[in-house]
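Whiteboard transcription, Tuesday session. T.W. wrote the structure tokens on the left side:
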């Protein structure tokens, strides 16, 4: 997946929660647009969990 494709889900109006699926089937839930940030160069996304922890993801590892 590319950052452009990811941003289509992120900026959908009205927003619909979605899951990011990584290689290896790990899933990261994005319940609200504030829980996701993508670096300006589109290489890294940060996904926050509801407890305040976050995961940094290489966007190229996103499979769905």
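and on the right, the sequence the group agreed on:
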């Amino acid at each position: 997946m590319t950052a452009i494709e990811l941003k289509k889900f992120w900026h959908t109006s009205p927003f619909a929660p979605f899951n990011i699926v990584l290689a290896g089937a790990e899933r990261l839930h994005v319940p609200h647009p504030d829980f996701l940030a993508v670096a300006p160069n589109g290489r890294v996304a940060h996904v926050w969990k509801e407890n305040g922890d976050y995961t940094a993801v290489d966007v190229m590892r996103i499979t769905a």
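Someone added at the bottom: The longest strand covers residues 44-48.
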